[in-house]
Design goal:
Order of helices and strands: EHEHEHHEHHEH
Number of helices: 7
Oligomer: single chain
CATH architecture: 3-Layer(aba) Sandwich
Shape: globular
CATH superfamily: P-loop containing nucleotide triphosphate hydrolases
Largest sheet: 5 strands, parallel
CATH topology: Rossmann fold
Radius of gyration: 16 Å
Strand order of the largest sheet: 2-3-1-4-5
Strand content: 5-15%
CATH class: Alpha Beta
Number of strands: 5
């Protein structure tokens, strides 16, 4: 079936929108599963390289044990964060080798077709929503995501009201999912 990945800086509403889409698709009678990364807790005080390895290993386990079997059963899989977060946080911000990280994740994805929804939010609004976040880091992350996803994702304006953001996602997701039915 289809793998739908949600990405965005903290405060963009990824989990909220991804869960709403999950519930919507289930209510439409479409077999759907929802997963959130990272699937396991990361050890504290880890370097960006160790974080990348940990997230990649966790992702590999999640794909082998849940996502690939779900897709083989014809389910829609909704994933809250994935390898793109690793590329943004650990590679572009943390200095980890981008090529190495991409190669490891290509082996995990194993030619699975996926669709990325990037919930784009200004760092200032994200900071208003979550004042414990660092504004400068949010700015760097947003730039990293936009650089990584240029022309490769559905970019959704996450500064709108929740219902408007969800309706934008729902229209696109309906088209993707219905094309495979």
């Amino acid at each position: 079936m289809k793998l739908l990945i949600f990405e965005g800086i903290d405060g963009a509403g990824k989990t909220t929108i991804a869960k709403k889409l999950y519930e919507y698709l289930l209510n439409q009678g479409i077999p759907t599963t929802f997963y959130k990364e990272p699937h396991h807790d990361i050890p504290p005080n880890s370097s960006p390289f160790t974080q990348m390895l940990f997230f990649t290993a966790s992702r590999s386990w999640l794909f082998e044990n849940h996502i690939k079997p779900d897709l083989q059963q014809g389910k829609v899989v909704i994933l809250d964060r994935s390898f793109i977060s690793t590329l943004a946080y650990q590679c572009l911000l943390g200095g980890v080798d981008l090529t190495l990280t991409l190669e490891l994740n290509k082996k995990i994805l194993d030619d699975i077709k996926f669709y990325v929804f990037y919930l784009d939010l200004s760092p200032e609004i994200a900071y208003q929503r979550k004042p414990e976040l660092d504004l400068e880091t949010l700015e760097k992350l947003r730039n990293a995501y936009l650089q990584l996803l240029k022309g490769k994702a559905y970019i959704i304006n996450a500064s709108n009201e929740l219902d408007k953001v969800f309706n934008s996602v729902k229209l696109i997701a309906d088209e993707i999912v219905r094309a495979s039915l």
